[in-house]
Amino acid sequence: MKVKEKRIKVYKVYEGYINDDEEGVTAYDGNLDIRPKYQRELVYGPKEQQDVIRTVMRNLPLNVMYWVHTGEDAEGKPTYEVMDGQQRTLSIMEFLEGNFSVDDMLFSNLPKDKQEQILNYELFIYICDGTESEKLEWFKIINIAGKQLSPQELRNAIYAGPWTTSAKRYFSKTGCPAAAIGDDYLSGQRNRQEYMETALKWITDKEGSTIEQYMSEHQHDANAVQLWNYFSNVIEWVKATFPTKRREMHNVPWGILYNKYGENSYDPKVLEARVKEAISDDDVSHKAGAYEYALDGDERHLSVRAFPDSIKEAAYERQNGICPMCKKHFEYKEMVGDHKTAFKCGGRTVPENCQMLCHKCNLIKSATAADFLSWG
To answer: Which of 102, 110, 129, 300 is most buried, judging by how many CB atoms fall within 10 Å of its CB?
Structure first.
C-alpha cells in the first residue's frame, strides 16, 4: 500500500456534490466516490454532524482522512473513493447543501467571511494506492472516524459486489422494503446493516451454513431476490400465525422458528391464548420465549423463575434429603429445586410446588417432559 499526503480545500471537494440513494454519493467534480460499496450509510447523528462543522468553523484540525486512488476518468484525471472519513465528509457536504443547521444557523445564513472560511478549510488527506485485498484489510484496521464497524458492515466490505448492493436496497436503504414489512418484528438498526444480518442468520440456519459462506457463494449474483423472497415468507408466516402485535416480538428469532415450524398447521387463536398466558405470568422471565413455547409447549423457552434458596432449603428439610424419584439421600448442594407441577400444567414458583431432586433425576424428568410434550 503506497500512501501520499495531500491537502484539499472544502470548496474543491464540494464541486459537483451529488447525494442520491440509488446512484450513490459523489463529489470533487465527480471524481470522488464518497460512499463506495463497502461503506455504511450515514450514521452520524445531529450532534456529531454539528460537532464536525464547529471544528471546521474554529479552524481546528479534523482527523486525517483516507482516499484510495481508483484510476482515471475519461479526461485522464485521477479518481478516488473514500476509505476513511465518509461521515465527516458527508457532514460538511450536507451542511453546505443547507440540510441542517449549527447553532440555529444554516450555511446560507452565515456571514460571508464565515462562509469563505469554511469553503477554504483544508482537509488533511492520505491518498492510498493498493490492491483490493490491501484496501479492504486497511479499511478494517483504520475503521471510520473511531466508530467500530458492525460485523455485517465488515462482511459487506469483504464480499462487495452486485449481490451486496442489491441486498442493501432491500434491507438497509431509507424506506427499504424490509423496514416496510418487518419493523414490528425486528430489532437493531437498519442503517447499520442489522436487518440484513438478521435475514442472513435466518436463511443460513435453514441451509446449515454460515453468513460468510452464503455471501461468498452469492457475491457475484445479479441480485438478492432469493434472500428477499425468503425473508418475505418468514414475515408473512409470522403475521398469519401470530396476528396480535406485541413489543416482545422484536426479540424473537422469527426465521429460526419458521425453519422449524413453518410447515406445520396451527390455530392462531389457540396460540394467542398460550402466548398471552405466558407473557402475563410473573414467573416467566424470558417473555420473547412465549412464542416458541406456544408452538411446541417446551417451558424451557420461558426461563421460568427459579425457586429461591429459602424455599429450596425448606423443601430439602421436609424431604430429609431424600430424592422422591430415586429414594436416595443427597447433600443439599447435590440437589436442585424442581416444580412438581410444570408451568404448562398451571404450576407456579411457590413453596407447595417445590421439590428437591438429585441432578440425575432432574435431568431424567426434564428429558421425559420434553419427549412427551403434546399440545393436542
So the answer is: 102
**Dist CA 277 CA 138 (whole Å):** 53
Cα dist from 221 to 41, 163, 165, 205, 215, whole Å: 22, 5, 10, 20, 10
- Tell whether pTM > 0.70: no
Cα–Cα distance, 231 to 151 (Å, whole number): 20
Exposed, middle or buried, 52 (CB in 10 Å: 0-12/13-18/19+)? buried
Q: How far is the CA of 196 from the CAs of 37, 96, 169, 185, 239, in angstroms?
A: 15, 32, 10, 14, 20
146 CB-side CA count, 13 A: 6
The structural domains of the chain, with segments of one domain joined by +, span 2-149, 309-371
Q: What fold does the segment set 2-149 form as a domain?
A: 3.90.1530
Residue at grid coordinates 455485517 = 152
Give the range among 133-142, 187-196, 249-258 with minimum mean pLDDT. Answer: 133-142
What confidence tens digit (pLDDT) does each residue in 292-326 have?
999 998 888 887 777 889 999 999 999 999 999 99
CA distance 193 to 202: 15
Q: Do domains 2-149 and 309-371 have the same CATH topology?
A: no
Question: Which of 301, 299, 335 is closest to 316 using CA atoms?
Answer: 335
pLDDT in tens, 81-120: 888 888 999 999 999 999 999 999 999 999 999 999 999 9
